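so i finally got all the pieces together for this one. its two components total, 528 residues if u count the protein bits. some of the lines might not be protein, just check the labels. i wanna see the whole assembly predicted at once instead of chain by chain like last time, that was a mess tbh
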Amino acid sequence: MTNDRGSSFVFRPLGEADMANSVKKYGFVIDPKRCIDCRACLVACRAENNVPLGSTRIWVYDQGVQGTFPDLSQQFVPYNCMHCDEPPCVEVCPSQATYKRPEDGVVVIDQQACIGCGLCLPACPYHARFLNPDTGKADKCNACLQRVEQGEAPACVATCVGGARLFGDLNDPNSDVSIALRSAQSAQRLPAVGIDTGPNIIYINDDVDEKKLAVTAPQIPAADAFYKWIVIPGVLAAAGAAFLGQAAAFARQLRKGESEFDE
Amino acid sequence: MSTEVLTLAERKRLRAKKIKKHGLANIVTHWFNAVSWFVLLLTGLGILGNPDLRIMPQGYVDFMRNLFGGIGGLVESHKIFGMIWLLVITYNVLLGFRRYFVPFARKRMLLTPDDIEWLKKYGQKLVGKKVTLPPQDAYNAGQKLYGYVVILGTVTIGLTGLIMTFSTLFPPEMRWIVQWARPFHFGAAGLVVAGLIIHVYMAAFFPEEKSAFFSMIHGEVDALYARLHHKKWYDEKVAEERDYEMRVRLEEIEAKEKEAEGING
């Protein structure tokens, strides 16, 4: 069984039915109209997660001045890992170092298991991953799990002066994000090009033009296709033939029985 | 296998006679390699948990990960076992390069016209035809070819493994090397394992090769096996024995002559 990307990954869909089992679905709700591009969230994230200078786990996209005078507007779009329902980065990871936590849907990286191949970087349609120059391994937003598990909001959310960023359990009708979604004038996800990975950042009260956010289709390097479609079938065919060959020879040997002159 | 008819007495005499085939260095290296391959194969297959790349069932993958305290522990252990294996194998090859490796490569690994003939005939034998196989060296052509697969596989696996172990030393724009190392690491291991299935069957179960299996424990094969399966090597060994015998006799004669001279003079 394969999904529509040709991968055999089957993600456990998180829906409202999971509420009964207290399965969470963490996500962000972001109101671009409240963002003033102060980038305090970038600083807070860097301090909280020890992100090296020159790298960042989160971004604010400046859409530039829109419209004609005197009808001008400017939009700032805070942005980070979308913790997708069906993350393509998880699908390409050979060692499953990056995975979607079954209990709350946060996409995390096991740094010890990461072999540093970098396949997940182009696989992410939102370019939310980077190679950490200190560790040499893949890095990304982990929704500040170390804070969330203590009952606090992620650093970017806690520090946001305008209240543009909200974080919480999308499955819980009483969470901050659910309340904000209910009272929002509009709600918008940013699907990747050609594919909907179920991103869990929801932009409210404003239209975001995803074409200006450099959202792409997931890129799978040729090495992966070579591995999947040539090397694995080849190895399985060779090993299978060898196994069948020796099984046939063994069967013939048993049928023949042993004699004193078998040398 | 030679088809010449041997009398029962001759068979018994040859079977009781032992010829040394493997030195202690060979035997130790072989079994170290075997244990390493076993451990690396088990841990490596546990790492491949991605459903698109997985070979073993999910239950096996979960078991290996739990055994090593999670996927991180499994990956780290695989790297450490791999580096120990590579270090010891490289050390053994370098240490024994002149004494073992060069003579081995020169005398036992080169393909001869007889080997090509053997490969053709053996193919016909597999289909069921009755054929007479040409005489073989210490290793037959099949063993020699598998030897090349193992040597090339070991080099490929070692290099790609080192690339992946030290992947973080590559700058971001060079990570494609790490991405390409994965299929070659897996492919090389897979081809060696395909041959390994035959190798293990031949050694452990195939009645004609029983002597070869025990030679990897005490280093000796019986002369009957050597004569039937490795005629050229057997003849070499017999010639060596004859040379030794001649030398000893010559020395005896010389000693006697000297003694006689002593009495006369």
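Helices of chain A lie at 40-49, 88-92, 120-123, 145-148, 155-159, 176-182, 222-256.
Residues 222-256 of chain A form the longest helix (35 residues).
anyway lmk what u think
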